[in-house]
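agent> fetching stored inputs for the beta-D-fucopyranose docking request
agent> found them:
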Amino acid sequence: MTSMKFPKDFLWGAATASYQIEGAWNEDGKGESIWDRFTHQPFKILNGDNGDIACDHYHRMPEDVQLMKKIGLQSYRFSISWPRIFPAGYGEVNQKGVDFYNRLVDQLLAAGISPNITLNHWDLPQALQEKGGWPNRDTANYFTDYSALIFKQLGDRVDLWSTFNEPWVISSLGYGDGIFAPGISDKSQGYQAAHHLLLAHGNTVKIFRDGNYKGKIGIVLSMTNNRPATQSEADIAACKRVNQDNYGFFLDPIYKGAYPKDFMEWIGPHAPKIKPGDLEKINQPIDYLGVNYYMTFEVAFSNLGGLLKIDMQQKSASNWDFTPEIGFSINPDGLTTLLGYIRKEYNNPPIYITENGCTVEEKPNEEGFIMDWGRIDYIRAHLRALHTAIQEGSDIRGYTVWSLFDNFEWTFGYKPRFGIIRVDYQTLERYPKQSAFWYQEVIKNNGLDY
Ligand code: FCB
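agent> prediction call returned; pasting tokens
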């Protein structure tokens, strides 16, 4: 058994997102979001589920903060619902929405928990979608105005900020493929959306700097670990395209001030329209990169593989299975590989792991308790992979479990349960699982035995 200690000041947390936990979708002046609209349509979501009630966090926030305190979280990553603040996306402010997040931040601080705010985790105001959504350049300006208001309201008390959660998911799954809200499947709109998300990001970082707020600001990306299926030139090139689509398209402009040239040529007429000066705006220094890591893919060239001509297969490590209900591959070492790639490609930026976690087979006893050893094994293995990356020289500042609660898992509805706290969706009672108590020890010791 070896003992793994994490660096001094390493930040341990857990994450959620507004649409996945808040509920109260049309209460206290909140506007409709694209996820409200999407989930209210038939056949979009498993079992017809939606986030109308979700974990009812909007009404149970004080007790939820007390639970976080009991677990000993040092940091809580949550997102703000833009349509709760600006029901129409811009213009008139909904004060009750602002008050809710003000109370949340104050209660977190009183509980000794550092707030880590994501300004947008996918729930764009539907009113802005009516104007074209992210493919419309104006949306980037509305986002910056919304962020400016949030900074003014909360900027004195928040240590960590991110502009967006997983912009690739918004642009690619929301606008390119249409399997997520707002359900548009048009590659050109997808890449245009990505450019505007980046523009919104850059402009927001700029106003954050200009306001001299005390916290740090970054962006959170979904980063799968991808490897070529064979060493053939075609497979290697296909894998590179996936990396460029998934992260190069975002990180190159942010860190290097340019889109990957060969990739832009590959997508040809679907490449976004860029105005002079845009890349300078996007190329703002950020304080950290947020990495969400879940899975590893093998990528092969395929003639039938859409615009990118790829075939992607999830690959679990030989001693791991796939996660139940949602079928994610498990490959802890993929995290070390991925972090090594970022270290080399982007000059070793400070990193927080902003999401990592899994579903497991779980059945509560009659007390509602769950012995989720599978989740503990998963997190332990990923912490070990993370520790290895730190020893190799990566600058890792913190780890965040996805998720604090079982919650609404997008198109999979409530079936997959990612929480370290169980939510009984009938009674809305919360039950910390064994993993929550195990995690409490990890936090206390700033490490674990392996
Ligand atoms: C990430 C999302 C998060 C959750 C996890 C399982 O891509 O950011 O909201 O759905 O996956």
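agent> quick read of the result: The first strand starts at residue 3 and ends at 5.
agent> awaiting further instructions
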